[in-house]
Write a structure and sequence with these properties.
With 255 residues, this protein is α+β, with helices and mostly antiparallel strands. It has a single domain, classed as Creatinase/methionine aminopeptidase superfamily (Creatine Amidinohydrolase, Alpha-Beta Complex). Helix content is 27%, strand content 29%. The protein is built from 4 helices and 17 strands. The strands form 5 sheets. A 5-stranded antiparallel sheet has the order 10-9-11-16-17. α1 packs across α2 and α3 runs antiparallel to α4.
Length: 255
């Protein structure tokens, strides 16, 4: 691995191929979770399913033990934005649940997240999830050689806010590879005067909009992990790991 600048770490084609393997595991896992998530299961059930799936495919769950996190998946329900600790909470009809997972293969990580409906959900919840997922793809479209991080941020913010939702501004996406969290940071909104580094071939990014139904403000609960909306409104989270290549953005965590 060679560094282009202190803010951008590039991967070789061989290293990106390894990341594709970890990304494929996450893509399959999130697809399987569509059929697993239902009213009555606990967030701990989801974590156990995710850990068994990842390890059964010869990978290691990137989150387990990272910074002291006690589980293999972050499972965040309704007003929980990110970093929800799995436990005995049961999902109920109408909930939405965001699942954030990582997998490591041969020393390389990928990171991905998706928000799922639990049974039938409100029209507002569906609109929030749809807008958040589309804002992710709007950002991915900007992950091209010669573009800047701010171009990704602008695309995400523009789409989410055009639909009437708010961007969480104290959390961001990030580079990913040898470490789960690498430079550069990828804000989901434009910071005036901070365009970020120019994207070059071989950069790998975890792009992850976190979007709220209500206001943008969030707080961390007393468990020192779970981030929730201050106004109690719903939040959605979608994430893909993306490689910047000569052919354009390549999503490493898609089937």
């Amino acid at each position: 691995m060679r560094k282009i600048t202190p803010l951008v770490i590039c991967k070789s084609p061989e290293e990106i191929d390894i990341m594709k393997r970890s990304g494929a595991i996450l893509a399959e896992l999130l697809q399987e979770l569509r059929g697993f998530i239902r009213p009555g299961i606990t967030t701990l059930d989801i974590d156990a399913f995710a850990e068994e799936f990842i390890t059964s495919r010869g990978a290691y769950p990137s989150f387990k033990g990272l910074y002291g996190f006690p589980a293999s998946a972050c499972v965040s329900v309704n007003e929980e934005v990110v970093h929800g600790i799995p436990g005995e909470r049961k999902l109920t009809e109408g909930d939405i649940v965001s699942i954030d997972v990582g997998a490591q293969v041969e020393g390389f990580h990928c990171d991905s997240a998706m928000t799922f409906p639990v049974g039938r959900v409100s029209n507002q919840a569906m609109a929030l999830m749809t807008a958040t997922e589309q804002s992710l793809y709007e950002g991915i479209e900007q992950a091209r050689i010669g573009m800047r991080i701010a171009d990704i941020s602008r695309a995400i913010q523009s789409h989410a806010e055009s639909k009437g939702f708010s961007i969480v501004k104290v959390l961001s996406g990030h580079g990913v590879g040898r470490k789960l969290h690498e430079e550069p940071a990828i804000p989901n909104f434009v910071i005036r005067g901070e365009p970020g580094p120019v994207l070059v071939e071989g950069v790998t990014l975890a792009i992850e909009p976190m979007v709220n139904l209500g206001g943008p403000d969030v707080k961390t609960l007393n468990d020192n992990w779970t981030v929730v909306t201050c106004d109690g409104s719903l939040s959605a989270h979608f994430e893909h790991t993306v490689a910047v290549t000569q052919e354009g953005p390549v999503v490493l965590t898609a089937l």
